[in-house]
Amino acid sequence: MRAEPKRKRLPFWIELPILIVIALVVALVVRTWVVQTFYIPSGSMENTLELNDKLLVNKLIYDFRSPDRGEIIVFQPPASWNAPANEKEFIKRVIGTPGDRVVCCDAAGAVTVNGYPLKETYLYPGNAPSTIRFDVTVPAGRLFVLGDHREISGDSRYHLRDSSGTIPISSVEGEAFAIYWPVNRWTALGVPDIFGSVPKPAGG
C-alpha cells in the first residue's frame, strides 16, 4: 500500500500572519458577544468596586436567563436619566426584579424586598441604606437598581417619577463577575447570601 504524501507546511513567515489574524478574530468575537472589559469611572459602587477598577462582564448570560437580585450589572441608562455624555454605561446592583415590592425603609432603617429586610453588609461604611423614601412594585420587564455607595449613587431612587425609577431589562449589557485589574484587587464578584432569603413576590 502506497503511503500518502505528507502535506507541505506553509513557510513560517506566511503562517504567522494567518495565526495572528485568527487570534484577533477570536478575540473580537469573545469581546463582542461573550466577555467585555469594563472600567469603573465613578465611586458609586464603593467599596465593592473602587474607582479605576477594571472588570470582566459576562455579555452572554442574560441571553439565557433574566438578571437576579444581588447581581452587579452593566446597563445603558434610560434617556430620561440624563446621564453625562461620557457615561454611556452605568453599573449598579439589582435590588428588585419584576413583581418585587421594594420599600424604604422599615422601622430599623433597612430596605425591604417583599417584606424581607436586607442586611446590606456591602454598603459603603457610614452610609444609610437610603435617605430617600420609596415604595415601588417593579413592573414586568424591568429592574430596580441601587449603588453600594448610596450617598453618591445616581440610581433608581432619583428617578421615581419615571417608571418608578426602574430600568428595562433589555438595556442590560451583562453581569460583572470579576475584578481583574489592578492585580491586588483581583476577586470574583458573587451575590451576597442575604438575597437568597428574599421571598417570592406576592402572587409570584
What does this entry look like structurally?
The longest helix is centred in the N-terminal third of the chain and has 23 residues, at about 10-35. The chain has one helix at about 10-35; strands at about 35-40, 55-60, 70-75, 90-95, 100-105, 110-115, 115, 135, 140-145, 165-170, 170-180, 185-190. The strands form two sheets. Strands 1, 2, 3, 4, 9, 10, 11 and 12 form an eight-stranded antiparallel sheet that branches. Strands 7-6-5-8 form a four-stranded antiparallel sheet, with no helix packed on it. It is built from one helix and twelve strands, in the order αββββββββββββ.
Write out key terms for the chains shown.
1 helix, four-stranded antiparallel beta sheet, globular, 204 residues, alpha+beta, eight-stranded antiparallel beta sheet, Umud Fragment, subunit A
Summarize the structure.
The protein has one helix and twelve strands; from the N terminus they run αββββββββββββ. It has one helix at 12-34, and strands at 35-39, 54-58, 72-75, 90-96, 101-104, 112-113, 116-117, 134-137, 142-146, 167-168, 172-181, 187-188.
